[in-house]
Fold this protein.
Amino acid sequence: MIAVRTAEAIAADFPILSKPTSRGKRLVYLDSAATSQKPQAVIDTLVTYYSEYNANIHRGVYEIAERATEAFETARSTVAHFINADHREVIWTRNATEAINLVGYTWGLQNVRSGDVILTSQLEHHSNLVPWQLLAEKTGAALRFIPADDRGILQLDDLEKLLEGVKLLAISHVSNTLGTITQLDRIVPAARAAGATILVDGAQGVPHLAVDVKALDVDFYAFSGHKMLGPTGIGVLYGKRALLEAMPPFLAGGDMIRKVEYEHTTFNELPWKFEAGTSNIADAIGLATAVDYLSELGMDWVRLHERDLLGYALERLAPLERRGLALYGPKDPALASGVLSFNFADVHAHDLASILDTEGICIRAGHHCTMPLMEKMGWPATARASFYIYNSKADIDALAEGIEKAARVFKL
Amino acid sequence: MDDFYRDFILDHYRNPRNYGHLDRPAVSAEDLNPLCGDTIRMEFEVDDGVVREVRFSGKGCAISQASASMLTETIKGMKLEDVAKLSKDVVLENVGIGISPTRMKCATLGLRVAKSAAIGEIAGWPDEE
């Protein structure tokens, strides 16, 4: 493990974090599960691309086009290496949602039949639920859910039974609402034994955990660049080569073709078969810079840092439980990523977020795109603080003080 | 935004006026704010074109619930056709303070529902008119 930098030193790499709010407060950013902040290096990469070698890729024969193509494909290799994939298995998408939909509309429509079962869990983000509802509707397949307990931990006692007849297992690596880390080492081998194809929604996985798609032995793994220090509008679908080869293209157009005649087209090879039209060149290159930044810190350090922060947050906020603070999720840093959902007395999550905002503290409030989970748990809404590499214990102190301010404002 | 939560707002949030249901409402409507899931239902008893009784129900943040509670007091005794014409100003007058753009839909949800009840179809968002 290389990283020895403090969170404060890391925060200095993120220009937005040193800009005071309109009320003159220090920005305390606790919403990285929604989107992360960007280090100067990523911002510089975008500026350099647009100011020095902006050109379309793959066909230009002039110098800046060659440079753009080289940077774009090197970025793919960088990201592939980061998750231990082959570069031909890394498809650029807009985000994890698009990556999941790509699988639904290609592999899904090709392979899922009436009577098949799609197994997912009660913790899923809408992005890993709604595409499967649509696929089930189109094909006549049935949806089934791995249940979660009150702490948001998946109950796996009946897993083998749940996996009977399952064509596709689609499951998140980390819950965006509760931070629960899915026990893929238990679930994936069982799904394999049952003959299921396995897709993991890694939107909250890759940014926070070391991910090795080969070791995980998953078929598809989807994630978004903007939650891992990269720009918005760039995401990744990893797919096992044999599966990607057998799948029909998703969108059709330029770049995804080998030869086009008026009546017939031969498609390009991997990965370009799935990348119709001009790709998001700048943001792909920017994502590679983000990956370099994370690699330098080391993902093991990132995980340990978030574990420490979650442990500290649980400890720091515990005294507020007597005053009506309800903390949700596993409440165990060994089982969860740096995400903490909560409610405070009769203060609605949106009011709490508004009051924290006056102190420069950014948290999320609402259903976090997990409406079925909120319904199941009986929470109309929760407040959610989420941590990343630039957060320090001082940020959690600010959160605790902000909640105390809410208690004063609400006369509690 | 923290100066929004004054005593009378908290009082309306914790002790909402005209909360509950009418036995036989002449008109009613309900809606939710899709951004946050807050819900409001409004029921009116109408006599000779005038709103004689109002009840509201729902759940959500202090801004949406207190605004709806205050609105029921404004509406009682008004002509139904005048309720249909209300603008967001009535909400801002009731709360007596500016609302940030991100919370404006919370504040005007009750009004939108009341206007929907008055006109018999889903009204537009008062803050977008």
Notes: Chain B touches chain A through 19 residues (CB under 8 Å). The radius of gyration of chain B is 13 Å. The longest strand of chain B covers residues 50-59.
